[in-house]
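Possible regression after last week's pipeline update?

I re-ran a chain I had predicted before the update to compare outputs. Posting the input and the new output here so someone can diff against the archived version. Not blocking, just want to make sure nothing changed silently.
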Amino acid sequence: MNIHKNEVYLPSEDTLLLDYAVRKYKFNMVLEIGTGSGIVSLELSKRNNVVVAIDVDINIILRLQESCKYIHNMNLICCDSASPFIDGVFDMIVFNPPYLPSDEIIDIAVDGGQKGIEVTKYWFKEASRCIKESGVILFVTSSFSDNIELFEFIKNLGYEIRILERNNLFFETLFVVEVRYDN
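New output (post-update):
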């Protein structure tokens, strides 16, 4: 697997859509999986008590450490998904996963697996373990992804799904999906 290192996923329509969506929430403990440029985590730090921003690329974390050194409620961790966290610790978890369908994951910033949902499913499974029962998960997906299978997977884990935001581009539609435990 060839992975592009030292390249930050630059904020694009999907990042900006998620950035807009998170402004509606205020919680105690928030996690962003795959922080990339850090723009969403920075927005989260304005309204939430504690923000944990993670990314698998140490170079991204090092860059963000320098630019975020005066933001005292943001913690940066280099790790894969939410694997190091205990169950039920976060009030909100957000992510903009790689969602483009690809036969091979060459660029971890955009290649989401054969159906474009494999990485999202993995991140969601980890997020569902770390989210409080009263918490909310927000993520981005695309009309290029197999959302029927993805949403069925999420519903089978016991969650309700709501499309929170939508951006129709000339070549695809981007969605921010809100997921809550179905009580």
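Follow-up from reviewer: compared with the archived run. Residues 154 and 161 are 8 Å apart (CA to CA). Marking as no regression found.
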